[in-house]
Amino acid sequence: MSQVCCQAALRLALVALAVAVSARPALTQTIFRRAIVDSTGELHIEWSDGRSALAPRDSGQVAFDQVKVSADHRTLGWVALYTNSGPSYPLPLKLILLRAGGQRTEIGNAFPIWQWGFTKDGRSVVIRQAPVHGDLPTYYEHRDIATGVNCIEEVARRWTLQPFSGSWCQTLYP
């Protein structure tokens, strides 16, 4: 009887080990080590496995700005700057999010993205958008990284650095 119990316990231990190993693929997944914009304006991306590459520019993109890596190092983001016929400086019109697996999400509409940040859980971002000039509303959006879908939106009636409500907006103001 004890030999049967030992065999059953051994089988159970092997099954538990197999489940534990298969449930931890994220530990072996390649993640972002860092990303930096060099003196020539190119964005260099480095992965944990030693690979590196230059981030591609979109058509009309003139620069990279606000480069950030999420706390879990699984997502890299930056604001793409574009020339504009109005102001003499480039405008931050798109937020590009690149996940370690290669998936890319673009977030942008007609308003410049003046500020953005990852949420603590690393699954979404918060952005602050506003027109270039004037006393028009400031928009705060909470967007899903995988889809770019706008989960929550708040509009401040006038330009403001601080949102009027929404604890999720505090991502931008630690």
Task: Summarize it.
With 174 residues, this protein is mainly beta.
What does this protein look like?
12% of the residues lie in helices and 40% in strands. By secondary structure, the protein is mainly beta. It is built from 1 helix and 11 strands, in the order αβββββββββββ. It has one helix at 2-22; strands spanning 32-37, 43-47, 52-54, 61-69, 75-82, 91-99, 104-107, 113-118, 124-129, 138-144, 150-156. A 4-stranded antiparallel sheet has the order 4-5-6-7, with no helix packed on it. The termini are far apart. It is globular, with a radius of gyration of 22 Å. It has a single domain (2-172), classed as Lipocalin, CATH 2.40.128.
**CATH class type:** Mainly Beta
Q: From the 3D coordinates, which CATH architecture would you assign?
A: Beta Barrel
As a whole number of angstroms, the C-alpha radius of gyration is 22 Å
What value does the average pLDDT take?
Answer: 79
Give the spatial strand order of the biggest sheet.
4-5-6-7
Q: How many H/I helices? A: 1
Total E-strand runs: 11
CATH topology value: Lipocalin
Poorly predicted spans: 4-27
Q: What's the SSE pattern?
A: HEEEEEEEEEEE
What is the CA–CA distance across the termini?
62 Å
Query: Considering DSSP H and I runs of 4 or more, what fraction of the residues is helical?
Result: 10-25%
